Amino acid sequence: MTRIIGICGSLRAASYNRGLLRACATLLPEGASLEVVEIGDLPLMNEDLEKPGWPQAVQRLRRAVWPAEALLIACPEYNAGIPAPLKNAIDWLSRAEGLGGTTATAGETRRTPLAGLPTAIIGASPGMLGTARAQQHLRMSLQSIGTLVMPGPEAFVAGARGKFDEESNLVDEPSRAAVGRVLAGLVAWTARLKAS
Ligand SMILES: Cc1cc2nc3c(=O)[nH]c(=O)nc-3n(C[C@H](O)[C@H](O)[C@H](O)COP(=O)(O)O)c2cc1C
C-alpha cells in the first residue's frame, strides 16, 4: 500500500485543482490510497506563533503529513507563481520538529514532514500554460527543503474551462490519462526511493 497525502493549493469551492484531486482518487493504481488534507485554516506563517507551541491547525496538518509515504500537490498558478495559501502550508511544513514545542509529532525520524518525501506535482488553469510556471516555482522551493520531487511524468491541464464539467470534475480523457500517468509514476518513484 502506498499512502499518498494530497494538498490542493486553491481554497476556492469550485476549484479545478480540487477537481484534479477528485479525479486522482478514481485513477489510483492498485495498492495506493489518497487522503486530501485541508490548508485553509492555517494562520499566515509568523515565527512568533511557533512559541510556546505551534497553532492547532499547524499541528493538525503536520500530523496528517508525517505518516504519508508520498505527497501529491495540485498547484494552481497565481501571477506566474505558487498561490499564497499553498506556499504558506509548505512554509509551515518546512519547519523542524522541536520549534513548535514537544507536543506536535514526537517520535519521528525525518527532520521535517516534507524532507525526503516522494512528491508529485499536477495543476490546472484556464490559461494556455496549465500552471507550468507555478509548478516550476514549486519544484524549486520543495527541492530547497529536501522534498524528493519526481522528475516526471508531469501533468499540466491547460484550458481548464473546456476540460472540467460544471461541477469542476475532470472530464477530458487525455487529461485524465496524463494524471493517471503521474499517479503510476509517483507510486513507482516512491517504491524506488524506499528501496534505495
Ligand atoms: C491572483 C490570481 C492570479 C492569477 N494568475 C494566473 C497566472 O499567472 N496564470 C494562470 O494560468 N492563471 C492565473 N490565474 C487564474 C487561475 O489559474 C484560475 O483562477 C484558476 O481557476 C485557479 O485555480 P482553481 O480553479 O483551482 O481555484 C490567477 C488567478 C488569481 C486569483
Automatic annotation (TrEMBL):
Residues 2-159 form the NADPH-dependent FMN reductase-like domain. PANTHER family: CHROMATE REDUCTASE (PTHR30543), NAD(P)H-DEPENDENT FMN REDUCTASE LOT6 (PTHR30543:SF21). This is NAD(P)H-dependent oxidoreductase. It comes from Falsiroseomonas oleicola.
